[in-house]
Amino acid sequence: MEREEVRNYVEQYCKLRDIQFSAYELYARKHNLSAKELFVLDIIWFAPDGCLQSEICERLSATKQTVSAIVKKFWKLGYLSLTESETDRRNKIVRFTDAGIEYTKKIIPPAAEAEVEAMAEISNTDIEELVRLTTIFSEHMKNKFSEIEGEEK
């Protein structure tokens, strides 16, 4: 495929990605949240035994400071509890409090259901293909971007 044709596909893909991110951002704003805050709540929601702050950082490719600030915000609101990890006392296990469950159950389960419903509109074969191709593209993107990380800004 010609490079210009590939560039056009990259632009189309980026527009589609932006539509997806925009949907999350708009949904988050409806609940007075940022998309990152929404994603943090989502990760914790689907980790019933709690999760480490470092796991949230890794999953979101977010800095420790960013995740820490988000966790601190929800902790101050009484929505999260923090417990020292038995294996690494510097790392905290993040869990919802009862108030946090009450707050979050109005936000995350409807969003998760919307994702499932959107995916369910696609045939099984297309879902498998979407995930397969997105996996391949994501790996190539990760590799290509890691190759340029050392360049001067």
Automatic annotation (TrEMBL):
| GO biological process terms on file | response to stress
Which Pfam families would you find in this protein's record?
MarR_2
Q: Which SUPFAM superfamilies match?
A: Winged helix' DNA-binding domain
GO molecular function terms noted in the UniProt entry: DNA-binding transcription factor activity
Q: Which residues form the HTH marR-type domain?
A: 1-139
Spell out the protein name for this chain.
Answer: MarR family winged helix-turn-helix transcriptional regulator
